[in-house]
């Protein structure tokens, strides 16, 4: 379901895909070849949400923002970069996720947190408000702690995961062909 709110209508790139059971509401921009899977909620009602290209928001995930108020002047938006995989049942709240990040199932990323590019956040992790996760590492735990540098295989998997979800969304759309230059 795509819904406007107070004059803001979601802007969804024609190549992006949103499952019929998902809710995308308000000031939300979804980039090229991105996908939003069943029962997700992207609620850009009190601030904006921006999703980059070739990113996927998997089943049951909730993305929200904070409003302008005494504790958050101007509020906080939510931004997800390019080639990001957001696993099942993830909560992203008013945070910034850079490019080529994998957020494991059931993780929570809180207000003002920043996840740099090329990061894996293990399933079930909690990123505390305002925490910054440095690039190039595996992070895990509640609260998330840096575990070790990513291997080259893990770095390659970040891009593979994003490409896999582009191919999968094409199958769901019935188009069957990946974007130019992407292997089948």
From TrEMBL:
PANTHER family: DYNACTIN SUBUNIT P25, PROTEIN YRDA. It comes from the Bacteria. This is Carbonic anhydrase or acetyltransferase, isoleucine patch superfamily. Pfam families: Hexapep. Gene3D superfamilies: Hexapeptide repeat proteins (2.160.10.10). InterPro entries: Hexapep, LbH_gamma_CA-like, Transf_Hexapept/Carb_Anhydrase, Trimer_LpxA-like_sf. Keywords: Transferase.
